Amino acid sequence: xxxxxxxxxxxxxxxxxxxxxxxxxxxxxxxxxxxxxxxxxxxxxxxxxxxxxxxxxxxxxxxxxxxxxxxxxxxxxxxxxxxxxxxxxxxxxxxxxxxxxxxxxxxxxxxxxxxxxxxxxxxxxxxxxxxxxxxxxxxxxxxxxxxxxxxxxxxxxxxxxxxxxxxxxxxxxxxxxxxxxxxxxxxxxxxxxxxxxxxxxxxxxxxxxxxxxxxxxxxxxxxxxxxxxxxxx
Length: 233
Hints:
Layout: E1 5-8, H1 17-28, H2 32-48, H3 52-55, H4 62-77, H5 81-98, H6 109-118, E2 122-127, H7 132-137, E3 146-149, H8 161-170, E4 177-181, H9 184-193, E5 197-201, H10 205-210, E6 215-217, H11 223-231
Parallel strand pairs: 1-2, 1-4, 2-3, 4-5, 5-6
């Protein structure tokens, strides 16, 4: 199916994840218990994705998701929910985003996005974390037609809900979207489940040998020609 739109994960896909880790290292040292608990909760949330009870509960929204996430985190830490909510908001949604004006993009990301837009493709950004502020600080926000987080659906990757929502907002069918990410488990698996084409950003030989992605690359100069060739398919 010809590609009409390209969706991008953000963290570890448009920039090296190590760049964020280095900038957050000193701040992280004082929040190790929170980091451990929050990481555990995000895994728990992924396990909840396929459960009937979670899918058929009240209509999800980002505030309800954040409250539930805070409740789970509070249980692990022995805190009350309000304290966990504020700690998560301060560290993961504020401090971790504030440094993005200093995060270096992978080489040729900007040129690739501009090429795809110039050729008339629609571009979407879909991340498990809110990414609009990050993209603004990286000066990339004008290049995207839609920007969203999976948290809006109450179901984090690899659940297909956020991928479906991205295609809907882009105004294209799922099978006309190429989704680009750096995680086999979350990005490739989730996009494939939604019927999308997939591209994996990696330099790992093992990942290249085992991925189910349609296209594997590390140099962004390879992505543009791949997409344009398949736009004419």
